[in-house]
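Appendix C reproduces, verbatim, an entry submitted by the partner laboratory led by Prof. M.T., so that reviewers can inspect both the input and the predicted structure.
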Amino acid sequence: MNNSTIQFEFLFGGTFDPVHYGHIGVIEALTQLSPDIPIRLLPCAIPALKSLPQTTFQQRVEMLELGVSNYSSVIIDQREQLRSKPSYTYETLEMLRQDYSNKRFFLVMGMDSLLSLKQWFQWKSLSQICHLVIVNRPGVTISQAEQACKACGFYLEQTFEKVTLYPVGRCFLLKMPEKKQSSTEIRHLIKNKRTLDSMLPQSVIEYIRNNHLYESE
């Protein structure tokens, strides 16, 4: 394939139940890493390794739309809503590769997800269809990241530009300020009527309140 026709895209999946500043921080870091590369958000309909979301798929999409409204490079892809079985990242990637044969994909995940990657469906095949962008976690060294990437079939590159030279199988460690927010913690705070101002965009907080989300288990 002629390199001039190749396009790149970040893929960032999750339940987003709800979207919070931790997610948005990753989007901001990706935008700074490469402003010209679109970020495709893939809200998960039926998680394979987590409990079911507490809100509907459409509610989570609407919260995402509110939370990322300032980022013109973000695409919210709702294809996983069409599935009646658990969402597998490998299958979604294969679908995207069929739909966009001229694109190379960078699958974005936290270091904790990388460490559990061997639990994923068809994990050994991921290095044959995409690159990884790993978001750092406190205390993780370059050596640890390199070993974790290698164990999953990926080769860690020191620069993102080097990753783009290869079709698949490379990994880049994205260093960004730590965001302590978690969706689990936020749902707990809402149930207990605690403040959320430092954890979520105000538009998402208002949506949650107006729709009485997460007020009970």
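The chain has one domain: 3-182. Additional entries are available on request from the coordinating office.
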